[in-house]
Description:
Elements: H1 19-49, H2 52-62, H3 65-92, E1 97-98, E2 101-102, H4 105-132
Antiparallel strand pairs: 1-2
Organism: Iodobacter violaceini
InterPro entries: Fumarate_red_C, SQR/QFR_C/D
Keywords: Cell membrane, Membrane, Transmembrane, Transmembrane helix
Amino acid sequence: MNARKPYIRPMAGWWQRNPFFIEYMVHEGTALFVLAYALELLAGLICLTQGEAAWNSYRAFVASGPMLSINLLIFAAMLYHGYTWFKIMPRTLPPMKIGGQKVAAATITAAGIAAAVGASALVFAVLWFMQRGL
């Protein structure tokens, strides 16, 4: 009897062979959480256009215990997604030079994170003062 060797797919599990690719694939997986939150916000926008009753129903829905838990999970995934995006960014950019010196990858990552934190703080401050009527 002729025993045939099983076909081994050469690309199977390619991303599991390198820690960079594992992190990259996890990063890409967290994009699904970004999509979920975008759809949640879109649903809120649709409810807002349908009147006060629909908007109040949406607000009650997102304030429920299960949705708060889901949103906490989404928030954690989005923080990880953002962090890994800035961590991967130096590898995807062309080499950057300032004053003839190559900018370190850690500097690019730190600058991206600082910019994101600064922009978030600015949006939070604007919304805070708008809500307070200042």
